[in-house]
Amino acid sequence: MNASQRRAAILRLAWTGDAVLSLYVRQRILAEGKGIDNEKAARMTSNQFLSHFGEASEIESKIGVLYEAEGLPVAFQWIEEHLVPAFERIEAKRFPKPRQDGRIPK
């Protein structure tokens, strides 16, 4: 497989992986019970976020491979184990929770 064919295969799988990631994120947000949060969904599926782990299309491709080979539960589990912890750390810095005294930490 030459470089052009490899890139085409990555992009095909990334397209599927992006859909799987989007479904995971939407279900997770709805399960939080706070309603629809398009901004949060966009942050978690953005190339900027995925670039913390490597090239975004390659990360999405990994999800696509897992989905095609092993199904949705395995792909969701991989997202939960590999992407969610970093996302939660980033979100905690972006939106710090107020302390007991009501002040927001710096």
Structure, described:
This protein has 106 residues and is mostly helical. The protein has helices at residues 3-31, 38-45, 47-50, 56-70, 72-82, 84-94. The longest helix is centred in the first third of the chain and has 29 residues, at 3-31. The model has no long low-confidence stretch (mean pLDDT 91).
Summarize the structure.
The protein is built from 6 helices and no strands. The protein is mainly alpha-helical and 106 residues long.
Question: Which key terms come to mind for this protein?
Answer:
106 residues; single chain; 0% strand; mainly alpha
Quaternary state reads single chain
How are helices and strands ordered from N to C? Answer: HHHHHH
Please outline the major beta sheet.
Answer: none
Count the beta strands.
Answer: 0
Radius of gyration: 16 Å
**Average pLDDT:** 91
Class from secondary-structure proportions: mainly alpha
Low-confidence stretches: none
Integer count of domains: 1
Shape: elongated
Termini Cα gap: 51 Å
Please state roughly what percent of the residues sit in beta strands, choosing from under 5%, 5-15%, 15-25%, 25-35%, 35-45% or over 45%: under 5%
Number of helices: 6
What percent of residues adopt helix (DSSP H or I)? over 70%
List the helices and strands and how they pair.
Elements: H1 3-31, H2 38-45, H3 47-50, H4 56-70, H5 72-82, H6 84-94
Helix pairs in contact: 1-2, 1-4, 4-5
